[in-house]
């Protein structure tokens, strides 16, 4: 009986872990084209760095929020608010903005 309980809690644990991470696909040419409308010199590497910053430096206090859930206006506000909390440099903040805003535009252009 004890073993069964242990097994069940293990499965629950594993499931919690997997549902916790918000899956975002790697930035592609689509995101790059969108980002370059605002920041002409953007590179794909920068978008990938922005994604890494989001996944690694924005998860210290809470899980990653689903990018497509919020409007561009809300994200700009949150990025301004959260970057100091995550102690991002201006360059890191810019890469994060490029990643989040282009990802949002490609995957949920109508999000309010
Ligand atoms: C030092 C802890 C901390 C870090 C690091 C942090 N956050 Fe937050 N975040 C919070 C807290 C606390 C709240 C809720 C209260 C608030 O909005 O200030 C929050 C709220 C948010 C919200 C609002 C969600 C909603 O439902 O309105 C977003 C979006 C967000 N964070 C994104 C980020 C991003 C992006 C980063 C990385 C740059 C980040 N956070 C890093 C503490 C943190």
Description:
This protein has helices at residues 2-20, 29-38, 44-57, 72-85, 90-107. With 112 residues, the protein is mainly α. The protein has one domain. It is globular, with a radius of gyration of 17 Å. The protein binds heme C.
Please name the defining characteristics of this protein.
mainly alpha, binds heme C, 112 residues, 67% helix
Mean pLDDT: 87
DSSP strand count: 0
- What amount of the residues lies in strands? under 5%
Instruction: Output the number of helix runs.
Output: 5
Order of helices and strands: HHHHH
The termini sit apart by 50 Å
Taking the sheet with the most strands, its summary is: none
Radius of gyration, in angstroms, nearest whole number:
17 Å
Topology, element by element:
Layout: H1 2-20, H2 29-38, H3 44-57, H4 72-85, H5 90-107
Heme C binds at residues 57-58, 60-62, 65, 78-79, 82-83, 85-86, 88, 96.
How would you concisely characterize the structure shown here?
The chain has 112 residues and is mostly helical. It contains 5 helices and no strands. Heme C (HEC) binds next to helix 4.
């Amino acid at each position: 009986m004890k073993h069964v309980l242990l097994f069940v809690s293990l499965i629950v644990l594993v499931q919690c872990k997997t549902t916790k991470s918000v899956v975002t696909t790697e930035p592609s040419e689509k995101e790059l084209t969108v980002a370059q409308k605002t920041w002409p010199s953007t590179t794909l590497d920068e978008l990938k760095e922005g994604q890494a910053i989001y996944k690694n430096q924005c998860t210290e206090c809470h899980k990653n929020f689903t990018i497509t859930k919020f409007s561009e206006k809300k994200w700009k506000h949150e990025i301004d608010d959260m970057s100091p909390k995550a102690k991002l440099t201006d360059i890191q903040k810019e890469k994060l903005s490029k990643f989040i805003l282009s990802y949002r535009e490609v995957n949920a252009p109508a999000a309010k």
